[in-house]
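Have a close read of this protein, sequence plus structure tokens, and explain what the tokens say about the fold. Thanks in advance:
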Amino acid sequence: MGDAKTVETMLVDLIDVLGMRILDKAHMYEVETEISKLGVEPFEDEGGVTGVCVLSTSHCSIHTWPLRPFFVMDVYSCRDFDGGAVEKLLAERLGAYDLQVTDVSAALEYRFAEKPARPETELVGQA
């Protein structure tokens, strides 16, 4: 989980498995572990990899902490996808075994308050 290329390959493959489309290359950032800064206040960084992929339907991102070993990943899309496929790929590629999955798809079902419609405005212009 401390190698940016490994994490990048996993992200791109996951996006492909889910049938999503990446809009550009994966953006990966590797932060070196600085042993001298561990446990020192103010908190610095323990190192790890942060990756972001912008999708046609939203984004996929990950941050790893190889010393823990721990990672947080966000697969966000306005399109339905198979969460089981995400878990399977994470187990295969990163050796993840104790996953805590949070499904926030209900957040996409915004209920509009009962408000009167916005008044129409007249557009004035010249052609």
